[in-house]
Structures are given as structure tokens and as C-alpha cells.
Amino acid sequence: MSSEQRTHGAPTTPDARTTLVIGGTGKTGRRVAERLTARGLPVRIGSRSAQPAFQWESPATWDAALDGVGAVYLTYYPDLGFPGAAETVGAFARTAVERGVRRLVLLSGRGEEGARRSEDAVRASGADLTVVRSSWFAQNFDEGMFVDSVRAGEIALPVGDSVEPFVDVEDIADVAVAALTDDRHIGRTYELSGPRLLSLTEVAAELTRAVGREVRYIPVTRDDFRAVLEGAGMPLDFLELIDLMTGGRNAHVVHGVEEALGRPARDFSAYARDAAARGTWKE
User: Fold this and answer.
1) d(C-alpha 132, C-alpha 280), whole Å
2) What pLDDT was estimated at residue 50?
3) Would you call 233 helix, strand, or coil by DSSP?
4) 109, β-bridge pairs
5) What pTM did the predictor assign?
6) Nearest-angstrom CA–CA distance, 34 and 42
7) Which positions ≥6 away from 156 have C-beta within 8 Å?
8) pLDDT tens, 84-112?
9) Are strands 198-199 and 163-164 parallel, antiparallel or unpaired?
10) Nearest to 89 by CA among 124, 48, 43, 51
11) Strands across the sheet with 103-109, in order?
């Protein structure tokens, strides 16, 4: 019987050993760490600035980060589908299991064929694995690469009229923490999205209502966006994530949030209102 087919009974007591949260200062990792800490569970942040430091490109840092760890929330930057990611995360997962880690929760991407190779590499480690496949983050508009665009009132992307069910990172964190602390989620793959499809024109309208001033979506060419990435020193592989949206592979709502948590996913409008109330987009 494969791990995808295993079932488990009642929730178990969370492992008292430390949970390593890789990317623990990022969008999802920070929230996962906060939730675990609020439950009184020990957490170690995996990042360049942490002590001990963790660096994906430096396997020599992995052992110290894994010392005394029982579970790992595993995120990979820049993306699991990028070249070399599967080999790196697979090697890390094997190291983690060798060091006594029992449970891994992997943040992956919906519709990304390249990310599937990374999932398989982590699964081959033999750990108790939960895979969380996410749509585009709603928080990309207030904590990510588009926050300045929203402040300026113009979001320029080469996606035309494509639609995406943007997912709230708060939902991702809730699912990840459930998977880290409850054996019923072992072997499961959850695909997460928001409750409805939105075009960038509709996203701009939602942000306009939340912010109280106009935010416009401006369609641009792929070459224009490539120049933006080059100017910002960002990997051109991000173009593949744009292609994922325009290709329509994720142009449908999925229900992983409800499957994992027993409640509906959070709507984009609620996210936008909360972000605006925090003053995120004040000029």
C-alpha cells in the first residue's frame, strides 16, 4: 500500500522535538512558525540569517539545522520546478531522515510538472510526507513582488485575461500546521486554492475597493516582463510561473483547504480588506 493510500486514526500528540521551518521568515514559513510557537511547540527557523544558518546551496549547513529536529516544513526558493531543485530537496530529505526526522510537509505548486519531480524526490526519502500544492499567493500583492505596483496603482503582467484562484497564505499556514501536528494528514496531497477564479482585472477591482483609490491592471508583453525580471536581478525561470497562469492548468477551483481543515478557503476580498486595514499600501 502506497503512502498516498494510508489512513490514520485519531490525532496524535504533536512531536515534542523541534520543528525546522525552512524559509521561516518568508510568507508561509513565518506564519507556520508563529502558529507552532503559539501552541507551545519548539521551532527552529531555517534561513541564512538564523543561528545556526541554513543555506540550500551549502549542504554543510544542513546537519546543524537538523540537530534535534523531529519534523520539517519544507519550502524551496526560488521554486521547486526550477532546474536542480529536485536533486537538492531530495538530498536534503534523505539527510533529514538519516538524522531522525519523521515528518516532512512540503510546499509545492499546483500544475507545475517540474515540481512533481521534487515531490517524488522528497517522497523517496521514506519520511512521513504531506504535500501541499498551492495556487498563486494572494499575499504576492502586499508582501511580494507586486506590493510597490499596487502602491503605484498599476499592476503590469503578461497574463492577458487569464484567471487564477488566488489562495490566502493564512490558509496555507493552517493546512501546513495541521499536517505537521496530526497524523491523519500523512500521505495526503492537498491542492489549495481560493474559492473563486479571478482575472487580474478583477484583482485590480478588488484592490481598488480595499485601498480606496484606483489600482489598474495593465497587460504587457512577455518580453517587457522579462526586462523587469532582468532589471531586478530575478531568475528568468519566473517566466515559467507566468506561463502556468496563462496556460490555464490552474484555471479551476480546488478544495484542499476544506478537505484538510473542514472549513472553506478564505476569499480574496477578505484578504484585500485586511491588508488595506494594516496600511500595507499607503503611499
Assistant:
1) 27
2) 96
3) coil
4) 134
5) 0.91
6) 11
7) 149, 217, 218, 219, 220, 224, 225, 228
8) 999 999 999 999 999 999 999 999 999 88
9) antiparallel
10) 124
11) 43-46, 18-22, 69-74, 103-109, 128-134, 189-192
